[in-house]
């Protein structure tokens, strides 16, 4: 089920406009993955596309906002990478 949702989100993301909020979130996460030499597989463009698709879905908008708040308030990359 989760794979289907991710696939649907990515498919929808192909036509979704990219939001500034998602760019900000994903850019910060990419910086943290790089600066911590994390082994987390991360693709900034895929992150922005998936985030934008979730943001466009009213059922998931609150989750995107919550994630944005977490990423924005944390200075330490370790905390940013733990944001849900």
Structure in words:
The chain is an all-alpha fold and 84 residues long. The protein is built from five helices and no strands. Helix 2 (20-35) runs antiparallel to helix 3 and helix 3 (44-56) packs across helix 4 (61-73). The protein is globular and about 35 Å long.
Helix content: 55-70%
Tally of contiguous helical segments: 5
Query: How many extended strands?
Result: 0
Q: Sheet with the most strands?
A: none
Net shape: globular
List the secondary-structure elements in sequence, H or E: HHHHH
Distance between the termini: 19 Å
> Gyration radius, to the nearest Å?
13 Å
Strand residues, percent: under 5%
* Class based on secondary structure composition and strand pairing: mainly alpha
Mean pLDDT: 86
Low-confidence stretches: none
